[in-house]
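Example 3.2
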Amino acid sequence: MLTKRHVSHAKGYLELGMVAEAAAELDKILAPDRDEIEVLSLRLAILQEQENWTMLRDLARLVVAQSPEEAAAWVT
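Structure, written as tokens:
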């Protein structure tokens, strides 16, 4: 339940353009929940907003390998 709350808050922050706050909210999620596809997809969106291309590329590769059906990772 706590993970869903952090994801919800991170999405809200991201929609408001508060990228640092969104990233900080995701950082509160404990392992192994950090590897859930919803969390990883949101992390991709945050990295894209931060223009952190190297980390974005690396995470997108990981998501594609883990969940090839996830279109967002392929597009990213």
